[in-house]
């Protein structure tokens, strides 16, 4: 999917702004994400840490869950901002969540430097398990 330059800038700016609201007292790693949904709306999210590290939530998932809570069911693109010299791709858990709503989503990672990573989810998560796998399983079981 190709995004028009103004929309791409808007998505990336939303991710950068979201990082400023990060709750990351333990890692000090402020991450922001923004998702472009099927309706054309952009939803942003940031990472939220917890003293029980397993209960932390990544920026990408926060943005997607916010969109889903608003009734969105399609993610067309995801932008991720990290305060690093090189861009950082979404973690495995985030890739799986992106797959739920946007198996063909464009994924853009930007950073403090000028480098960027632009790819698609199917390149980041080949042969992903998703909703279609469950539908096939139900059909085989006769449900």
Structure, explained:
This protein has 143 residues and is an alpha+beta fold. The chain has a single domain (5-140), classed as Cytidine Deaminase, domain 2, CATH 3.40.140. The protein contains five helices and five strands; from the N terminus they run H-E-E-H-E-H-E-E-H-H. It has helices at 5-19, 59-69, 92-101, 121-124, 131-140; strands spanning 32-37, 42-46, 75-82, 106-111, 116-120. It has a five-stranded mixed sheet with strand order 2-1-3-4-5. Helix 3 links the parallel strand 3 and strand 4. The radius of gyration is 15 Å and the shape is globular. It starts with a helix and ends with a helix.
**What is the number of independent domains?**
1
Give the beta-strand count: 5
Strand order across the largest sheet: 2-1-3-4-5
Level-1 CATH class name: Alpha Beta
């Amino acid at each position: 999917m190709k995004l028009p330059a103004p929309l791409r800038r808007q998505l990336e700016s939303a991710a950068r702004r979201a990082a400023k609201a990060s709750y990351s007292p333990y890692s000090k790693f402020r991450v922001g994400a923004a998702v472009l949904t099927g309706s054309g709306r952009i939803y942003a999210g940031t990472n939220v840490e917890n003293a029980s590290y397993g209960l932390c939530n990544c920026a990408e998932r926060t943005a997607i869950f916010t969109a889903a809570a608003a009734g969105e069911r399609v993610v067309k693109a995801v932008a991720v901002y990290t305060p690093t010299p090189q861009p950082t791709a979404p973690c495995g858990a985030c890739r799986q969540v992106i797959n739920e709503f946007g198996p063909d989503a464009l994924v853009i990672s930007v950073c403090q430097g000028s480098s960027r990573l632009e790819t698609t989810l199917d390149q980041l998560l080949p042969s992903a398990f998703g909703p279609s796998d469950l539908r096939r399983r139900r059909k085989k079981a006769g449900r």
